Amino acid sequence: MNRRVDALRASMEQAALTHMLIQKPKNMRYLTGYTGEGCLLVSDAGVTILTDFRYVEQASIQAPGVKVVRYDAAHPRLGEIRQALSSAGAHKLAVEEDEVTVEAYREMLRSLSGIELTAAGGLVEKLRIVKDEDEIECIARACQISCQAFEKLLGVMKAGMTEREIQLELDYTMRRLGAEDLAFNTIAAAGENGSLPHAIPSDHVVREGELLTLDFGARYGGYCADMTRTVAFGAVSEELQKIYDTVLEAQLASLDMVGPGVVCSAVDRRARDIIDKVYPGAFGHSLGHGVGLDIHEQPGLNARDQRELTPGHIVTVEPGVYIPGVGGCRIEDTVAITENGFRNLISAPKELIHL
Ligand SMILES: [Mn+2]
Predict the structure, then answer these.
(1) CA count, 13 A, side-chain hemisphere, 22
(2) Cβ neighbours of residue 68 under 8 Å, at least 6 residues apart?
């Protein structure tokens, strides 16, 4: 069928599973290229897309060669699934337990009586951790679009604009440059708002003497970019400069140790030690996360993740300092782990830019 479906079937076999129902849109896309609604049924006989009238043609275009089964009121989805299992003599169906709602689960219990439902969420996500060349190139392109948009923004952004105006300009520019969508809602936080790591852009007018944190990313080919830069408007206080310098030192030091065989938690620790010495407790989130079809994937650069980075992992490195009443700063790159170290997919400069 294809390498990804083959890999999933291999991990299903290891888990003694013959049939798996995939309902997460990103997992459906990863396995087949199909982006419409419905679900996938994966078995040793192959993969089937189950969908309704609206998506039948789209499925055949996006996933050529994949069997498409149309369901409707007379032939409901769960009836089709039940039939597929019974004709294969199967009595067990794996589902994504972190996707199925309680209501949907109850309906499955009713409609699939006699079939054991088992939790197998995470099997596809485990495959998605290591990106292939095509995926890395999509993320690299998404990062390139994001960096180009940031560079253009630097030419037009000035004190007197609101956070929302800056956000709109950046979003528009990413789309103009080829982003199919945004990877997530752009964060633009200036002045005291900078102490909110996930601030919602407001009508706050950016003034001279403020830092502005921009966290954003384009989406390309379904894949996300994630980058953050903090810029200054005019001259900033010694206090804000010190915050910036501390975050930059932590970002460069932790980035420097990234590579294959390095334990995720150790990278987080490196950045945290640097920041905690100057601003104890002011870096309250993890250092980074995997990026792919979803903006937050595995592995995590955090205190709990003891896995080793391996070639094909794509992670963010994004330390920050947040001080209520004063402001904040974050600097973030998205990097691909390679055989020898890493490839930084974000090319935007990191020294403090004064506008
Ligand atoms: Mn991020």
Answers:
(1) 27
(2) 48, 49, 50, 51, 56, 59, 60
Specify whether 43 is located in the same domain as 84: yes
Structural domain ending residue among the three candidates 93, 128, 163:
128
Q: What is the spatial distance between Cα 188 and Cα 165, in angstroms, rounded to a whole number? A: 9
Tens digit of each residue's pLDDT (9 = 90 or more) over 299-343: 999 999 999 999 999 999 999 999 999 999 999 999 999 999 999
Ramachandran angles phi, psi of 144, nearest 5°:
-65, -45
Q: Which CATH number goes with the domain that contains 73?
A: 3.40.350.10
d(CA 197, CA 79): 46
Ligand 1 midpoint to CA 23 (Å): 25
Residues 66 and 187 in one domain: no
Q: How far is the CA of 106 from the centre of ligand 1 (A)?
A: 36
Each residue's pLDDT tens digit, 190-223: 999 999 998 899 999 999 999 999 999 999 999 9
User: Where in the sequence is the domain holding 213, given as residue range(s)?
Assistant: 133-344
| β-pair partners for 332 | 228
| Confidence at residue 71, expressed as pLDDT on a 0 to 100 scale | 96
354 within some domain: no
Q: Note whether 270 and 262 are within 8 A (CB).
A: no
Model's pTM, two decimal places?
0.94
* Residues counted in the chain: 355
Q: Which residue(s) pair with 315 in the sheet? A: 290, 335
- Residue 216 main-chain phi, psi, to 5 deg: -160, 170
User: Ligand 1 mean position to 176 CA, how many Å?
Assistant: 23
Q: How many angstroms does the Cα of residue 230 sit away from the middle of ligand 1?
A: 14
